[in-house]
Amino acid sequence: MESHQDLLDFGAFPADFYENDESASGIDAFEIQNCFDVFEDSSLESKITDKHATMPSIRAIMWFRRDLRLHDNLALHRALKFVEAHKDTESVQLIPLYIIHRPKRLLCGVNRFQFLLESVGSLAEAIASRGSRLIIARGEGIEVFRRILPAWKITHMFFDQTIEPFATARDERVRELAASLDIHVETTRGYTLYDLDQVMEKNGGKAPATYTSFLRTVATFPEPAKPLPIPSSIPGWEDSREGLYKRLVEEEYLNVSHEQAISTQSQSWIDVIAGPQKLFRVPELSEFGFERPERHSFIYGGENVALKILQEYCKNEGQVVKFEKPKTSPAETCPSKSTTSLSPYLYFGCISTRTFFHRVRDIQNRHAKASSAPPVSLDGQLLWREFFHCNGHANPHFDKMEGNPLCLHIDWRWHTLPKTIEEEEALSEDEKLAKAQFEAWKEGQTGYPWIDAIMIQLKEEGWMHHLARHSVACFLTRGDLYISWVRGLEVFQERLIDHDWSINCGNWLWLSASAFFTAYFRVYSPSTFGKKWDVEGKYIRKYIPALAKMPAKYIYEPWKAPVTVQRLANCLVGKDYPFPIVDHKIAMRRCMAGMKASYAARKYGEQSHETNASPHPKKRSREYDEVKDEK
User: Fold this and answer.
1) 385 annotated ligand binder
2) How far apart, in whole angstroms, are the C-alpha atoms of residue 318 and residue 313?
3) Is 386 among the annotated ligand-binding positions?
4) Residue 177 assigned as binding residue
5) Dihedral (CA of 18, 21, 22, 24) sign
6) pTM: predicted TM-score of the whole model, two decimal places
7) For the chain, what percentages of helix, strand and coil (3-state, to nearest 5) are there?
8) Average model confidence (pLDDT) for the chain?
9) Phi, psi dihedral angles at 421 (to 5 degrees)
10) Do 391 and 509 meet the contact criterion of CB atoms below 8 Å apart?
C-alpha cells in the first residue's frame, strides 16, 4: 500500500517521488556551468552582501496550501494585519507563495491535478488584481524552504495548519527549520469549523466515535465565527521573479564550492523550484507528465467558481432548507441540483467551510420550522466532514486495517499485495481471481451496468454522487467481491477530484462495515438500487455507450435480454459488454459468511477484544443509513 503521506498536500511529498533525472528538469552540465560562470568575479560576496543589506528589514512569506482563496483566509488576514502594524516603522515585504508538487507514482489523477492548477491560477489572478504576485515554487516543501528561506532572507512565515497526523508532523519540520534560521512562524486553524484538539479534549481526550456523540460535543462550543471578507488590496513586493531566482543561485553558490555546485544536484534543485522558465509561474499539465483530457470534467477549479456555485445553489432557499442527502439522486447527470458539488472546493480551500456553513445556516434560520436537520441536512454534511476529520486527526492509521484501533479485522481478499515476482507467481487461484475482479471493478467492467457506469464516471470526470460511492464501495467489499476496502481507497484517492484523506478513509471504513457502521447485512443491490432513481437508465446510457439502445427493461441486467433483443440493441453480452463477473446472490451469501465470522472474532487493531460489535447485529446503525433490504 502506498503511504498516505503521498497524496494530501502538493507541497508535502517525499523527495523520492520526483522523476530524478536531469532530462526531466530540462538542464544539462553546460547549463549548470554557464549559470556559475557569472560568479567568477572575486568581489561577488561583497556585492551580494551589500545588496542584501538594502533589503527590507521584514520579509514575510504567506504560504498558501489548502486555502486557495482570498475570502475568509485566516492566515492571509493575520499576515496582512502584521504588515499593516509594521509598515510605518519598518520596511516590510509580503511574498505570497504556493508550493506545487507532482508525485512520480500515480496517486493523483489528471482530473484532480488539473483542478489544482486551475485553482492556483485563479488565486494568482486574484492576488495580481489586488497589487501583488503569487510565487509558485515546485518541489517537496521542506526542501524548497531549505533553499528559499535563507536565499530570500525571510524573517516571518504565515500559514494555515493542516490537521492530518502526517501533515502536522511535516509542519513541525518546517517550524524547526524556521526556528534554526530565526524565522518567526504564525499559524492559524481555518480548515475546519471547530478546533479539533479542543473537540477531542472535551470528549475525554479522544475523537468522538459516533456522529451523534460528535454533535453532542460540538454543541457545547460557540457557533463558528463569521467568515472574513476578501481583502481589498495586498501589498506588493519589490523583487522581480528573475531576481528571486538569482538570489537562489547566489545563496547556493556562496554555500558550496564551485566544484560541488556543478557536480551535485544543487542547480537542478534550484531550476526545479523555479520552473523551466525560472519565473515561478503556474505550470502546464504537460510539465508534470499529464496529457490534457479529451473532455474536461464538469468541475472547474477556482475560488470564483466555488463562490458562484454556492450563490446559485442558495438562490433556491427551499432547496437548501429541504435538502436531505439520502433523498438526492445518484443517477442525475452533472451538474445537477441533486448536490452542490462543492466538495472539491472545500478540500482545496477554494471556498471556506465557514462561508458555506453560515450561508446555509442563515437560510435555515429564516425557515426554521421547515428545515431538515443533521445528519441528512446540508449543514449536516459539513458536520460529517468535521466528524471524519476529527477521527483522522486522532488516528495516524486511519487508512489501514492493521494498527487501526477503530477497524475490525476482516479476512478480505486482495488485501496484501505481492511485492516480488516470486510472490506474484505464488498467488493462490482465488487471489488471482480477486486481482482480476478488482481490475474489472476499477475499470468499469463488472458486467453490472449500474456499478460500471459509476466507475466510468469516476475515471472520466473525477467525481460521483455520494450514494453512487456507497454502491460501488459495497459491491467491492461486503456486498459482492469481498475485496479489501484499502484497495478501493487507493482508487478513490487517485481518481477523485475531491479526495480528502480523512473523509475517504472514514467512508471506506463505514461502507465496508469495518468501523462506525455494523449492519453489514444491509447491502446495495447492483441491479435494483439504481432503478429507484433512474428507471430508464439514462445515467447508464451516458457512460456506457454500448448499452445506449438497450431497452429499459434490461438496462440494469442486460445478460437477461434475449439474444434477439441484444442484436436489435447492437450490444451482444460477452462481446460488446461483459457478462457479470459474479452472481450477486451467491457472492453476497459468501460475503455474509465471512462478515459473520469476522464480527464473531472481534479483532480490532492488533488485539482481539470485547466490543459492542455482534456477529448477529439485531439493530442497524441509523445514524446515516440509506440502505433498505436490497438483497
Assistant:
1) yes
2) 10
3) yes
4) no
5) negative
6) 0.88
7) 50, 5, 45
8) 87
9) -60, -40
10) no
The rounded distance, in Å, linking the Cα atoms of 416 and 430 is 13
Return all residues near 236 (Cβ < 8 A) that are at least 6 apart: 131, 132, 133
pLDDT tens-digit readout, 555-590:
999 999 999 999 999 999 999 999 999 999 999 999
Angstrom distance (rounded) from CA 103 to CA 10 = 8
> Is 377 annotated among the ligand-binding residues?
no
Indicate whether 297 pLDDT > 90: yes
Cα separation values, 590 from 407, 521, 584, 593, Å: 21, 12, 10, 5
Q: Residue 333's pLDDT band (boundaries 50, 70, 90)? A: confident
DSSP-derived secondary structure for 25-63: HT--HHHHHHHHHTT--TTHHHHHHHHHHTS-SEEEEEE
Which pLDDT tens digit goes with each residue over 109-168?
A: 999 999 999 999 999 999 999 999 999 999 989 999 999 999 999 999 999 999 999 899
Q: Is the pLDDT of residue 105 over 70?
A: no
Rounded to a whole number of angstroms, the distance between the first and last alpha carbons of the chain is 32
Annotated ligand binding at 2? The verdict is no
Say whether pLDDT at 50 is over 60: no
Beta bridge partners of 413: 483
Q: What is the DSSP letter of 99?
A: E
| Separation of alpha carbons 212 and 208, rounded Å | 8
Which domains are seen in the chain, by residue range?
28-190+231-286 (3.40.50.620), 421-608 (1.10.579.10)
Cα dihedral 327, 330, 334, 338, rounded to 10, equals 0
Strand-strand pairing, 184-188 and 156-160: parallel
Question: Does 499 count as an annotated binding residue?
Answer: yes
**Is 162 among the annotated ligand-binding positions?**
no
Q: Read off the C-alpha cell for 138.
A: 515546485
pLDDT of residue 12: 33
Residue 384 counted as an annotated binding residue: yes
Sign of the C-alpha dihedral computed for residues 46, 51, 53 and 58 taken in this order: negative
Convert 428-469 into a string of H (helix), E (strand) and C (coil).
CHHHHHHHHHHHHHHHCCCCCHHHHHHHHHHHHHCCCCHHHH
Which residues have C-beta within 8 Å of that of residue 404, sequence separation ≥ 6? 395, 397, 398, 515, 604, 605
Contacts of 503 (CB under 8 A, 6+ apart): 385, 388, 389, 392
Q: How many helices (H) and strands (E) does the chain have?
A: 26, 7
Pairing outcome for strands 156-160 and 603-604: unpaired
Q: Strand, helix or coil at 507?
A: helix
How far is CA 352 from its chain centroid? 15
Tell me which residue has cell 498467488. Answer: 427
Is 343 annotated as a binding-site member?
yes
